[in-house]
Sequence to fold (654 residues):
Amino acid sequence: MSAAARVPDEAGTGAPLLSVRDLALHIPVPPHVLRAVDGISFDLRRGETLGLVGESGSGKTLTALMLMRLLEPPLDALPRGQVVLDGIDLMTLDEARMSALRGRTVSMVFQEPMTSLNPIMTVGRQIAEPLVRHLGLSPRQAAARAEAMLRLVHIPDPQRVAGAYPHLLSGGMRQRAMIAIALACRPAVLVADEPTTALDVTVQAQILELLGELQREMGSAILLITHDLAVIAETAHRVAVMYAGRIVEEAPVASLFAAPRHPYTRGLLASIPRIERVPAATLPEIPGMVPGPGDRPAGCAFMARCMRAISGCAAEAPPLAELGPGHRVACWNPADG
Amino acid sequence: MIGFVGWRLLQAVPLLIGVSLIGFGLMHLAPGGPLAVYTLNPTIQVQDIERIKVIFGLDQPIHVQYVKWATGMVSGHWGYTFFGGRPVLEVILERLPATLLLMGSALSVAIILGLSIGVLGAVKRYSVFDVLATTGALFALSFPTFWFGLMAIFVFAIELRWLPSGGMWELGEEGSILSLIRHLVLPTMVLALVITATWSRYSRSAFLEVMQQDFMRTARAKGEPPAARLLRHALPNAAKPLIALLGVELPFLFSGALVTETIFGWPGMGRLFVDALNMKEYPVLMGLMMFTGIFVVVGNLLADIAIAAIDPRVRLR
Fold:
């Protein structure tokens, strides 16, 4: 990792640190081809948090696993496209060179803090492992750094926790430990896949706050994957909304919440419960379901559920088009800003 | 920990009593008896046989015999052999080293080989190697040990003449390590075969299960290379069920050793058991049965302690 990557930048300025181009995962499921991720592109700049939102099955997690090159056989041979980090295309690296980047330059925090830690290794050793592997610290130095990391993620009594096994920690504490592992080597990019989904609401807020704090301190760029727009509103600088394997709208967070242009985004925002609307009758929902692998239409995948669908929607999938500053929408009939 | 060991040993007492009762009962139900050989011997009179019966206490009711035997057993007095009148414990302990040597070498070979085959099969699942290993294991488990033993003797001792067909040493070479190793190879191979097959199957599934766990993906996301993931993360987690298996397998190992020792004329406890069975040597049989029972209890206890040492979530109580 270059020294510059560690310096906290102005969030979201400068050349992109991570550039994803036409990333796709087409899985043959005879007689169909499941377009799990269908050609997505986005940039991530230093110190920036990009929120990736979407329903279950929209391809968010697969996108994250492709970025990290963590897909297991037989899926690992299927990804197409480019993931360029600091000028290196991760997709073309061999496993050994990719392994050297994982945990050092790109790290990942997983959804399930309960099962993502090795149950029979102390928390301290699990944090120390990448420090020894990537930074060449001695076991003793690494142990000291591991304790410092635990302090950094606001774990009380870090010395005791470093010597503890994961089953003694609460979910929130385990996720803090996971974050400590992921950030131990001060990576340039952190991929956080639903990091708060498995946690209590109060703990969720603390973890998000912690991520923001560490980002300001280390200058890491974060790709925050979630299905929860409230999480995005609190944490992200920009948002990309995924639907059926594609990005349908991408915008700075304020712009997206103030003036969503894609009908799907509007539907998502409308279905968030709001306290001032109580006692409203029912929460508006988007009619229909995400299309299955076999019945993905040739045109816009959202068309069947879309209230704004027009005749052209069925013919061709709409490309992402810039409708405002940094605001891109893939829709043949976008709503007014 | 000390409390746990004490409690487990206490739990073993009714188990061992059960083993002894069943063993004692079955033995006396079997037709014939230790003195049956004499009935065909014309030089021995009926009254002589009756006299011997009284001397050995065989004229007493079976429950009296049992209580006498059991009280002696507890105080470390395991009785005397009918033929030769030697202390049973001495006879057993004399055979112990040979059995431990055979079981130890077979177990070492089987664990190393079985674990390697299983791990390789798990890592390269559905590969040609994996399919061959799985089929081979099924083959090894489907045939009786004695068949493999006879085949091994036929091929390596009779046809190829590479190795001796039985015994522990050549005549006149007693104590020679080289001769011992040459004699050890075939019985070890035969005894290890079935255990290797079991171990390869169990370690394959244990590793497959561990490798699907979330923390293995975490290890990969941390940049740990495959060898480190396998040795530091997968192996200790997969070791737990395998150690438990080891504890459970001990009785099978004993029965396997019994057949193997008999086929190869290996002077161990297994062959002693078969010989004692043929001669209705009740004291020796009971001694061996109790010895095996204690061995299995202690083996399982050690397995539990080892598991608790590996996994901090397991509490011994």
